[in-house]
Specification:
The chain is built from twelve helices and 20 strands. By secondary structure, it is of the alpha/beta class. It folds into two domains: 171 residues, Acetylglutamate kinase-like (Carbamate kinase); 145 residues, VC0802-like. The protein is globular and about 80 Å long. Bound molecules: adenosine-5'-diphosphate, aspartic acid and magnesium ion (MG). The site of aspartic acid has 13 residues, from helix 6. Adenosine-5'-diphosphate binds next to loops.
Length: 407
């Protein structure tokens, strides 16, 4: 008998028929003799609807109240799924995050899980009860409801699997695994049998929203194998686990992209010590995260300075730069929201040269201009105009033969 944590995403719970179908899947797992803990997201579209409701009553809603509202989406699905299970003679009990003491820090809308009370869950499991837990939410030490950031139900599931020492954490979604790139963008994208934590972490942090980054961080830290599966069709899915020799020997495992960044440039910045700190220090003080940074070599005592931030922080960052520009006598401030970041990810890059040149050639052959480049041990990212997103990703997918498995 194994202990399995199953997480079902929004599309898997998009209607009452779908909720019944999920109940049947849970019952089938239980019929194999396993203990099951189920984590659910809100019904598809529900969290977006709640966000829009909040924005229609307040321009920037108070984060504490925003979380109280957002957490209601998952309360609907835990109860409906538990009802559907009980009605089919499968004992089940629903729990909100607070009820199973998913203790988080107080960073509303992006809280981190600190601790989970496994005792209450075990008490049900030993009686053969299916435990249904609301994803995406927790409670802080003051008793305030918190949420874990968009896509946070993945993290609830992995954190529960870690706390309960589950045998496997299954993430059921609308695709039948992790693909070489988003199958909605490239139809030739190929399902991966296995991908290691490190690569999945890069894919997630570079924009592949199939799993929340923190879920992968948790899985890697506590060594919880994750399997991404479709709730619509049977199949082996994709196993996300520590790197081992049975994994594909591909140079590149996948291509991630991110449409959520914006680019800011200061032209003609004085070229002297302390300038980068002066600019980015003020950006950091405003709690804005910076991703890529480029500073050109100076000429005539000035230089150009470019960096990217999340779309949501773009206006705020631009205002700060205008103030800095006045203060430092900068020639011009430029902003550009029409960009995307495309990244190649693969542990094979560690030991192979020439990947960057193949990448740049593939983009050049399509006439795609590269605006920024950044590299690390297992990834290369470029920023290009957003109109080239699909063309660029497809060209790279073909250039690295990602539609065919490496042996
Ligand atoms: P859920 O609601 O089940 O959490 P998500 O929408 O969060 O589902 O994640 C699944 C989606 O992730 C897929 O529909 C797919 O478009 C997208 N996706 C992005 N990159 C990938 C990838 N490399 N492999 C599979 N799916 C991906
Ligand atoms: N319902 C939340 C969201 O839409 C959490 C999740 O689905 O994982 O982001
Ligand atoms: Mg998701």
């Amino acid at each position: 008998m194994a202990l399995i944590v199953q997480k079902y995403g929004g599309t898997s719970l998009g209607s009452t028929e779908r909720i019944i179908a999920v109940a049947e899947k849970v019952m089938a797992t239980r019929a194999q003799g396993h203990n099951v803990v189920v984590v659910v997201s809100a019904m598809s579209g529900e969290t977006n609807r709640l966000v829009a409701l909040a924005k229609s009553v307040a321009e920037s809603p108070k984060a504490r109240e925003f979380d109280v509202l957002l957490a209601t989406g998952e309360q609907v699905t835990i109860s409906l799924l538990s009802m559907a299970l009980s009605a089919r003679k499968c004992p089940a009990r629903s729990y909100t995050g607070a009820q199973v003491h998913i203790l988080t820090d107080s960073a509303h809308t992006k809280a981190r899980i600190l601790e989970i009370d496994d005792q209450r869950i075990y008490a049900d499991l030993v009686q053969g009860i299916v435990v249904v837990v609301a994803g995406f939410q927790g409670i802080d030490t003051e008793g305030n409801i918190t949420t874990l950031g968009r896509g946070g139900s993945d993290t609830t599931a992995v954190a529960l699997a870690a706390a309960l020492k589950a045998d496997e954490c299954q993430i059921y979604t609308d695709v039948d695994g992790v693909y070489t790139t988003d199958p909605r963008v490239v139809s030739q994208a190929r399902r991966l049998e296995k991908i290691c934590f490190e690569e999945m972490l890069e894919m997630a942090s570079l924009g592949s929203k199939v799993l929340q980054i923190r879920a992968v961080e948790f899985a890697s830290k506590y060594n919880v194998p994750i399997r991404v599966l479709s709730s619509f069709k049977e199949g082996p899915g994709t196993l996300i686990a520590p790197e081992d020799e049975t994994m594909e020997k591909a140079l590149i495992s996948g291509i991630a992209f991110n449409r959520d960044e914006a680019k800011l440039t200061l032209l003609g910045v004085p070229d002297k010590p302390g300038i980068a700190y002066h600019i980015l220090g003020q950006i950091a003080d405003a709690n804005i995260e910076v991703d890529m940074i480029i500073q050109n070599i100076g000429a005539d005592g000035t230089t150009d300075f470019t960096f990217t931030v999340h779309h949501n922080d773009y206006k705020k960052a631009l205002d700060i730069l205008h103030d800095i520009a006045k203060e430092l006598g900068v020639r011009e401030v430029q902003g550009d929201v029409s960009i995307v970041k495309i990244s190649l990810v693969g542990v094979g890059m560690r030991s192979h040269a020439g990947i960057a040149s193949t990448m740049f050639k593939a983009l050049a052959d399509e006439g795609i201009n590269i605006q920024m480049i950044s590299t690390s041990e297992i990834k290369i990212s470029v920023v290009v105009h957003e109109k080239y997103l699909e063309l660029g990703v497809r060209a790279l997918h073909a250039a690295f033969n990602l539609d065919k498995a490496a042996i």
